[in-house]
Write a structure and sequence with these properties.
61 residues, Rossmann fold, two-stranded parallel sheet, 3 helices, 13% strand
Length: 61
């Protein structure tokens, strides 16, 4: 993640964390680390699409 802060163009690349845990603490850690979204395993395709669209919509605004 640190490299992204030094490369100007990389700052706009959205990153979605994928973890095996769905606990609130895990989501918080992902966002604290600079992630733009979070999805827990097992992956549900509808939830994955929703997270991706949410992150992309935030980036457009």
């Amino acid at each position: 993640m640190a490299v992204l802060f030094y490369i100007e163009d990389a700052r706009t690349i959205p990153i979605i964390a994928m973890t095996a845990n769905a606990f609130v603490e895990d989501r918080k850690r992902a966002f604290d680390a600079g992630m733009n979204g979070h999805i827990a395993k097992p992956i549900d395709m509808e939830k994955l699409r929703a997270v991706i669209f949410s992150v992309l919509n935030k980036q457009e605004n």
